[in-house]
Amino acid sequence: MSSRQPKPKPAWYRRLAEFQKSEWGHAVSQIFTSHLPYLAIVSLMVIGVVSGWSYWIVFPMAFPAAAFLVRVFIVFHDCTHGSFVPSARANRVIGFLTGVLVLSPFETWRVSHLGHHATAGNLDRRGIGDVVTMTFEEYKEASPIKRFGYRLYRNPFVMFFLGSFYTFILLNRIVGLGGTPAERRSTIAHDLIVAAIVVALSLPFGWTIWLATVMPTVWIGGIAGIWLFYVQHQFDPSYWRRDEEWDEIHAALDGSSYYKLPKLLQWFSGNIGIHHIHHLRPRIPNYKLQKAYDAVPETHIEKPLTFWRSLGAVRYNLWSEVEDRFMSFREAARRLRAGVQNAIRGPEKSQ
Question: Hey, which residues does 318 pair with through a beta bridge?
């Protein structure tokens, strides 16, 4: 455990606390503009399948449904921080029920995500609710099998397309069962409710109704969600430090992106692109993040991450501690080949 004394917070950081007060009015409004449209579109998809509509008509509905599902997930996310509504109990109830819609057990995800906030950008405390990130120095010393496994994990098809199915359909059914009693209870209760909904939907219409409606919606929404989570901490220039140098303010400001999306996408993603503010003050509800950013000039980012520029983030595969930046696997391979060649030339020159 680090013995470092916490540094005093700047005045502008304290000003952000003014936006931490959650409000019932905003929260209820967001539920009406997220949960209800999502359920309405999925219900229309079910009606379409049962009525014999062409699946070419039904399947495209999964995209707007997935967009609203991302907005639903932001409600779930805020509840894990206890920031969505003023009541702590209501946050847990809304979070648990919303977790059923996004196929994520509340207590397990809450513990993991709060761990992520406490360790983001800390090279000595990786692996807690984050995207696994190796340093170039670690990759250089890794075995061929470990390198292959990491490259496979970082493959965009595996991380986003297969990762969505794996995380929300498979992993979330069992994660937490080996955790605390509260995590186990949350996961078991969550799984039982999800199973009951699947059975209730399948008995009158057949089990394929689930595959045709909810599954593609969750899969598409999961891809979008994993992408958002990825680019919020995998961008350049960024911030990664060893524990003795790690600072929570710098980790939030420099290691969490300001993902400036078009207004419609910002609305669907619940302002989560203003991620550096969220990491500075996780208790600020999503519906106040933009106001907090606008009100505190010290948090303004001169060159925010845009959608088109963010697409290059798939090449940020390894963190170089020496150069303090991300590098791609291709660059790492060139560096490793050059190192081998220099090692071969060295003995030759000495002969």
Answer: 134, 327
Are the C-beta atoms of residues 30 and 287 closer than 8 Å to each other?
yes
Note the pLDDT tens digit of each residue in 261-281.
999 999 999 999 999 999 999
**How far apart are alpha carbons 126 and 107 in whole angstroms?**
21
E strands present in the chain: 134-135, 259-260, 305-306, 318-320, 325-327
Cα atoms in the 13 Å half-sphere on the side-chain side of 299: 29
Distance CA(298)–CA(258), nearest Å, equals 13
Task: Give the model confidence (pLDDT) of 243-252 as tens digits.
Answer: 999 999 999 9
Q: What is the CA radius of gyration of the chain?
A: 22
3-state SS assignment for residue 241: strand
Q: Please name the helix (run of DSSP H) or strand (run of DSSP E) that holds residue 329, with its range, or none.
A: helix 329-350
Cα dihedral value 89, 74, 40, 65, nearest 10 = -160
159: CB partners within 8 A, 6+ apart: 131, 153, 226, 230
Q: Is the pLDDT of residue 46 over 60?
A: yes
CA 167 to chain centre: 11
Number of neighbouring beta carbons within 10 Å of residue 131? 17
DSSP 255-272: HS-BEE--HHHHHHTTTT
The SS3 of residue 18 is helix
Q: What's the confidence (pLDDT) of residue 343?
A: 43
Alpha-carbon span 264 to 246, nearest angstrom: 35
